[in-house]
Design goal:
- The chain has four domains: about 200 residues, no CATH class; about 200 residues, no CATH class; about 210 residues, no CATH class; about 120 residues, no CATH class.
- The longest helix is centred in the C-terminal third of the chain and has 44 residues.
- Strands 3-4-9-6-8-7 form a six-stranded mixed β-barrel. A six-stranded mixed beta barrel has the order 13-14-20-17-19-18.
- The protein has about 800 residues and is α+β, with helices and mostly antiparallel strands.
Length: about 800
């Protein structure tokens, strides 16, 4: 089939500008791959989560209480909007795990006897079998806890059950939609080595905890048209006399919230980063096509003179843009599908769904390719408009030469002090400010992308540094089953290996302000606390106020309060009093929702004698084994938390999941930076080929004209670095503002290594591009370049 003239012209242009076309395609491929990867990860998480929840009947509302008779179930089922109710016995117990020196903690959850399916929160059996009826020592263990401690069916665990030492036998390893994210108490990150979930038969747990015919935990599934707030209010009223700790919906369930935040993370990645990449691609297309139009003025004139319509010529240049983008879109789609598959394999390990559905839809690919096509269109729009505006007679004439006049160097008298090559470089930059500005902007975006790509590494490292080395300075956090008298502090301080002990009081409460409320723990600290401190994002240490409550800024945002507002505090333990307390300040912490009080002020609020819920311990490492052995058999101890264990868990969860995208972004950013710098250098050579050839004819050596061109590129590259830093910082700030979630907030922190990494990659790309351009300079055909267009 014979090609039309415009088609042959298009193919010739694509081949002639193949370097720039490849550079644009690379940028587009990175953007499309980011879209496809993040969107497929997002959709797979949503589909897999919904499937898991539905198949294993994950509840909608949860509540804990002291003790209620089983007969209360009927009244709960009668609440309008309630479709199903599951009552359970749940206690936290101390474990002696083989191979683990420290005491571990388990949440012991009751399940119906074999053959009776739970109405809600069913478990998925991975390995082994379910407990046999009458075998009270047989239990099921969560997979995360089992893998962290290398436990298999047949292993045994020592446990303190209601003050009595018992031996439990593992018969099965399971998963639960309720504990995708296993966490205890007021912790924020899981510690699978030292905390797990164990399921035992109801008839075994009832007698062990004096709960025959009673329950202390209830889950509810709502009917489709139910109003959750109304159901929660009715549940609270029913459970209040039984020591209810406040019902809450699925949105406040820690495991569900963490998964929801992970989904939000993929939405951010799938929106912000591809937008940046494709904006750069559009920018590059605009530069390339603008340059192409400038050099093909005579061809455009001839084509129009032969009768081609403006629309035909405009579509020709738009076709150039689409051809440059098409290859990148195809490559990016294939790369994104592969990365999405690899990412979802990792998600299966992190979140332990029984089935993880990876179903990349046509819509995802269509969105990615459509966005790339839009980038091509907007990138080509300016150049196409210039094509349409060119009249044939005007286009047949060469562009008028630029008007030259004395520049800043001459007016200041500095020109004589500079070598001729430096003066020529400066004049060329100063007399074409728009062209120079566009080149600087393009390379600045490359620097910005590098900064943003590495920002996540810095933010995660900084978060860990602040939380686990500045805020938390204890070795072990000790928690009691029930608040103990103040003299427990001295008993803890006398334990072998304890160098320092700081008690704390934690009171479950629901904070109310106007129409907003949130269930949190009032955390009572001593005024001179050293092991657990309140530190903001600027590393400032805050003291607990002598009166009132200090809230994390995120909790203040959730409640809609500012300093000076009065909160209504509904205490959820003991006699469940309702008090009022003044908000004394808001502190920008990075993790969790916290409400801090002076321990004495909290005791006065509760109208109780001094009591402690636990203690922060600094421990002598040489005696830690003895201490752990004693703690394992203390009936009052509900569990211990290791700071280093939490740090390891943090790195294995948040850091790992964010790190996947971070590594991809850094690679993409480096590739884009190289493409942008190469594109700028090649365009500069094309635009100045005639000028450089003239200098060669006048006697300049290849080295001298190389210095002129590459020196100019060096100046523009150096100017781009500070601008790129500013753009990168602004983009990082925008991303940080999107990662302000309740479980954690990413700080706006960019390290020196990130700035240095961005500079090194840019300079490396500039050096590689310089070598390519220098080779092109050596190969200039002086006769062809100097031919006059007539």
């Amino acid at each position: 089939m014979r090609l039309k003239p415009l088609h042959r012209m298009l193919l010739r242009d694509l081949w002639y500008l193949r370097g720039q076309v490849v550079a644009i395609a690379v940028v587009v491929a990175c953007g499309v791959a980011a879209v496809v990867t993040s969107r497929t990860a997002y959709e797979s998480l949503v589909v897999s989560q919904d499937f898991y929840y539905a198949r294993y009947r994950f509840a909608d509302v949860f509540a804990q209480l002291k003790r209620a008779p089983e007969t209360l179930r009927a009244r709960l089922e009668a609440i309008p909007g309630v479709a199903a109710v599951e009552t359970r016995v749940v206690f936290e117990v101390t474990l002696d795990v083989p191979g683990l020196d420290e005491p571990a903690t388990a949440r012991l959850v009751s399940i119906p006897e074999r053959g009776v399916a739970p109405r809600l929160n069913a478990v998925h059996l991975r390995v082994g079998r379910r407990p046999e009826p009458g075998r009270r020592e047989e239990v099921l263990v969560s997979e995360a806890f089992a893998e962290a401690n290398r436990l298999v069916p047949g292993d045994t665990l020592g446990a303190v059950l209601n003050g009595r030492w018992e031996t439990l036998q593992i018969v099965g390893i399971v998963l639960s939609p309720e504990y995708i994210y296993e966490i205890r108490g007021t912790d924020v990150f899981p510690d699978n080595r030292r905390f797990g979930v164990i399921w035992a038969q109801r008839d075994a747990m009832g007698p062990a905890f004096e709960m025959d015919g009673a329950f202390n935990d209830v889950s509810l599934r709502l009917a489709p048209a139910a109003v959750e707030d109304g159901v929660i209010a009715r549940v609270d009223r029913l459970l209040e006399r039984y020591g209810g700790l406040g019902a809450y919906g699925r949105i406040d369930h820690v495991s569900h919230r963490f998964i929801s935040d992970e989904i939000k993370q993929n939405q951010v990645f799938g929106t912000v980063m591809p937008a940046i990449y494709l904006s750069v691609a559009a920018f590059l297309l605009n530069i390339v096509l603008s340059r192409l139009v400038a050099t093909q003025r005579d061809q455009i004139a001839v084509v129009k003179a032969f009768g081609y319509r403006d629309l035909d010529v405009g579509l020709h240049y738009l076709g150039f843009a689409l051809a440059a983008v098409a290859g990148g879109a195809l490559t990016g789609t294939l790369l994104g599908l592969w990365l999405g598959s690899e990412l979802n394999q990792l998600y299966m390990k992190i979140y332990r769904f029984p089935v993880f559905r990876y179903e990349p839809g046509v819509a995802v690919v269509a969105i990615a390719v459509g966005v790339a096509a839009l980038a091509a269109f907007f990138g080509a729009l300016g150049a196409v408009r210039r094509v349409l505006a060119l009249a044939p007679a005007e286009a047949m004439r060469p562009e008028p030469p630029a008007s030259f006049r004395s520049g800043l160097l001459e007016r200041l008298g500095l020109g004589a002090w500079l070598p001729s090559s430096a003066r020529m470089i400066w004049r060329n930059v100063a007399r074409r400010p728009l062209r120079a500005g566009m080149s600087v902007l393009g390379m600045a975006f490359a620097v910005a992308i590098l900064v943003v790509g590495h920002y996540f590494v810095d933010a995660i490292d900084h978060l860990a540094e602040v939380q686990f080395r500045t805020v938390q300075r204890e070795d072990i956090t000790l928690a009691f089953h029930e608040p103990l008298r103040a003299d427990a502090r001295h008993a803890v301080a006398q334990l072998p290996g304890v160098l320092q002990a700081e008690p704390f009081r934690a009171v479950p409460a629901r904070l109310h302000f106007e129409h907003a409320s949130r269930r949190v723990a009032l955390f009572g600290l001593e005024p001179d606390a050293e092991l657990r401190r309140i530190v903001d994002t600027h590393h400032r240490i805050w003291q607990v106020p002598p009166e009132g409550v200090l809230l994390t800024a995120k909790l203040g945002e959730v409640l809609g309060v500012v300093a000076g507002d009065v909160l209504r505090v509904e205490v959820l333990e003991g006699e469940r009093p309702t008090r009022e307390v003044v908000v004394t300040g808001l502190v920008e912490e990075l993790i969790g929702l916290m409400a801090y009080m002076d321990s004495s002020a909290l005791h006065r609020l509760m109208r109780e004698d001094a009591s402690v819920s636990g203690a922060f311990l600094r421990v002598d490492g040489s005696r830690a084994e003895t201490l752990h052995g004693d703690l394992k058999r203390m009936p009052a101890v509900a569990g211990t938390t290791s700071r280093l264990g939490m740090l390891a868990s943090f790195e294995a969860t948040l850091a790992e999941s964010l790190g996947i995208f971070t590594r991809v972004l850094v690679v993409f950013a480096a590739v884009i930076a190289a493409a942008v710098v190469y594109n700028a250098a090649r365009i500069a050579l094309s635009e100045r080929a005639r000028e450089l050839a003239s200098l060669r004819v006048l006697g300049f050596t290849r080295r001298e004209i190389g210095v002129l061109l590459l020196g100019e590129q060096a100046v523009l590259t150096l100017l781009a670095i500070p601008l790129g830093f500013a753009i990168g910082y602004g983009l990082s700030a925008a991303i940080a503002s999107a990662y302000q979630w309740e479980l954690f907030r990413l700080p706006l922190f960019i390290s020196g290594r990130t700035w240095g990494f961005a500079v090194l990659v840019l300079l490396g790309a500039a050096l590689a591009s310089a070598l390519v351009v220098r080779r092109r300079i050596d190969q200039l055909d002086l006769v062809a370049v100097l031919k006059t267009r007539e």
